Amino acid sequence: MDNVTATRKEAASAVARPAPETTGRDAGAQQEIDGFSLVIEALKLNGLDTIFGLPGIPITDLTRKLQAAGMRVISFRHEQNAGYAASIAGFLTQKPGVCLTVSAPGFLNGLTALAHATTNCFPMILISGSSEREVVDLQQGDYEEMDQLAIAKPLAKAAFRVLHAEDIGVGVARAIRAALSGRPGGVYLDLPAKLFPQTVEAEAGRQSLIKVVDAAPRQIPAQDAVKRALDLLKSARRPLIILGKGAAYAQADADIRALIEKTGIPYLPMSMAKGLLPDTHEQSASAARSYVLPEADVVMLIGARLNWLLSNGKGKTWGAKTSKGWGGQKFVQVDISPQEADSNVRIDAPVVGDIGSCVAALNAGIDAGWQKPPSDWLSAIAERKGRNVAKMAETLAKNPSPMSFQSALNVVRDIVKANPDAVLVNEGANALDFTRSIVDMYQPRKRIDVGTWGIMGIGMGYSIAAAVVTGQQVIAVEGDSAFGFSGMETETICRYNLPVCVVIMNNNGVYRGDEVNPTGGRDPSPLVFVKDARYEKLMEAFGGVGVHVKTPDELRRAMEEAIRSKRPTLINAVIDEGGGTESGRITSLNPTAKSK
Ligand code: ADP
Ligand code: TPW
Ligand code: MG
Question: Measured from the CA of 250, which atom of ligand 1 is nearest?
Answer without folding.
Answer: 23
